[in-house]
Amino acid sequence: MPYYIYRITQLGPVKNLEKLEEFKVFKDASARAKELRKEADLTQCRIQVVFGENALQAEEALNTVRPAEPLTGDDW
Q: Could you give the residue ranges of the DSSP H alpha helices within the chain?
């Protein structure tokens, strides 16, 4: 599966996803994302690598809200 690099800006509850690049190898995608993070103003956005069968699946993964982990044992 290809790896995609996205610039994510959040205006209120809405995420704006901008696909920047696509790579076949994670190592290349990770290295490029690190370069982009150095160049970007990360107070306004974030750069993230995500994989998927296609760009639509990658964007769905970025928009998925993960449930919080349950508190157990000493976490109470």
A: 26-39, 55-63
